[in-house]
Amino acid sequence: MTHMxxxxxxxxxxxTLLLYQHDLDNLGNNVHVVSCVPFNSLNESNKAMFYCPxxxxxxxxxxxxxxxPEGEGQGSDGGLMRLIPDEQLQQxxxxxxxxxxxxxxxVRTTADGVVLHLGEFGWxxxxxxxxxxxxxxxxxxxxxxxxxxxxxxxxxAVRCLASTLGxxxxxxxxxxxxxxxxxxxxxxxxxxxxxxxxxxxxxxxEDLPIAxxxxxxxxxxxxxxxxxxSVTVSEGELTRAVxxxxxxxxxxxxxxxxxxxDVGPIDILDIxxxxxxxxxxxxxxxxxxxxxN
Length: 293
What we know:
It comes from Fusarium sarcochroum. The chain is an alpha+beta fold. The chain has helices spanning 6-12, 44-47, 87-92, 138-160, 162-165, 193-205, 217-223, and strands at residues 17-18, 30-38, 58-62, 64-65, 79-83, 101-109, 115-123, 131-136, 169-176, 179-185, 210-215, 224-226, 239-244, 248-251, 266-274, 277-284.
């Protein structure tokens, strides 16, 4: 396999266009390869972003992507990349090998906004300029979207009960299968658990539309219940937000379900306290079964 050095490819790569930011339903696109390098050739800071990669793994950068990187408290997408062969070359060579296939297992973003797709080739290889077809795993996307929407619904439920719960400030959320939570500065007593769960599931049952918005800093300040730590709002620029119509909104770069009822029942699993903070851990009643490889 031929490839350029990782230092050159990453420093010369422009910011990756994030297709999912504008179209959540798009799970596949044809894009172009910017670089394809062995994982072991990355610098240490980029290597550190990934969990337990195999030595034979590669990192593929494309000019745009439908794959969601890990971030915003949400796990990354997985799926496939398949080489789209040159039609003329295939016609000239009837014995051509099967198009290269790459399994994407983890996705991360560099500080410069370049998306790194980690995985391994089933067969073949990619070169700079190759046209490839992306296919996001719909099961994982749905799971992450349900959990992310559920976390924000839970946050809106706490906000609705502010007069009862007392003064708390939402800090962050994490939306991973088996370890999802929303964290607050301030103490929420365990005896509020049933009321919070009911308020969250009332929002679910209202079947409210969940819509992606692009708002000015003034609109964000007036409409959003919470600002993501990763969101920097510049004067005159639009920032991505998710609105639960009629209930509230969050600045957010993650993926979500179309409507609140699509999330299914939300279960509060635990309310714990540490150093003046409250962590509300939750799960979904409509568990998505993840196929094991």
